[in-house]
Write a structure and sequence with these properties.
Helices cover 50% and strands 7% of the residues. The chain has 8 helices and 6 strands, in the order ββααααββααβααβ. The termini are far apart.
């Protein structure tokens, strides 16, 4: 006989989910239903990414008869359910604790740890954690700044065209200053800059010149097929 994660006896032939897998199983069932998917559809979509999956795999997971979920399965589930991977491990709308290997942590604390904003994981070297978290924070800031540069207000309720342009300029100036600052920060951490195509680089330099943003780091465009950031028609908002 063997003992499961809760201390109850079970036969050696029946596998029961460990504590963290139980959390994932519950979140999968909840998110699947919210997405309007039945177990067969989830199994079919998972099979496209993870061939070993099927409806029976989903049933086994949700019935807590799957002992563990691999990292590859966890990421595939997040992709199929169209949620950030951390949301399969925690739901900040609840008060349910998350059973991390170092002990139970609140849903809020677990989510912040998973996205690099809090040292809730229980590691002893807090300084090393913050060094890594700083890199995550800088990458997030670079991404947000580049996305902001691609947004242009073309219509604004109660605002004139001149006011809309001034608002764009204000937002873009702040984004450029943040982008320059965070790229230099990443340089100092030895992190490679994100790959941008020629159109994105041209946009950054053009707007920096138009808005008088100085000390901009030198940027080198990447071939289109290798670029993470590619120029597309500007999105507009109503704000």
């Amino acid at each position: 006989m063997a003992l499961d994660a809760t201390g109850g006896r079970r036969s050696g032939s029946v596998k029961r989910a460990d504590a963290l897998t139980r959390v994932i199983a519950g979140r999968v069932a909840q998110l699947r239903k919210e997405a309007g998917m039945d177990q067969a559809e989830l199994g079919e979509r998972m099979a496209a990414l993870r061939p070993s999956w099927s409806r029976s795999t989903v049933v086994k997971l949700e019935n807590l008869n799957r002992e563990q979920v691999s990292v590859a399965d966890w990421l595939a589930l997040a992709a199929v359910l169209n949620v950030p991977p951390p949301m399969l491990l925690t739901d900040p709308r609840t008060t349910d604790p998350v059973p991390l290997p170092t002990g139970d942590v609140s849903a809020w604390g677990a989510l912040l740890w998973l996205v690099g904003s809090s040292a809730s994981g229980g590691g002893s070297d807090v300084g090393a954690y913050h060094d890594s978290a700083d890199v995550v924070d800088a990458i997030r800031a670079v991404h947000d700044a580049i996305m902001e540069l691609g947004r242009t207000t073309t219509r604004a309720s109660g605002r004139s065209a001149q006011e809309a342009r001034e608002r764009n300029d204000e937002r873009h100036r702040a984004a450029l200053e943040r982008l320059a600052r965070e790229l230099i920060r990443l340089d100092g951490a030895g992190v490679r800059r994100p790959a941008m195509d020629e159109q994105v680089v041209e946009l950054i330099y053009r707007r920096a010149d138009e808005l008088g943003v100085q000390w901009f780091p030198e940027l080198q465009p990447t071939a289109d097929g290798e670029a993470y950031y590619r120029r597309s028609p500007s999105a507009s908002d109503e704000g």
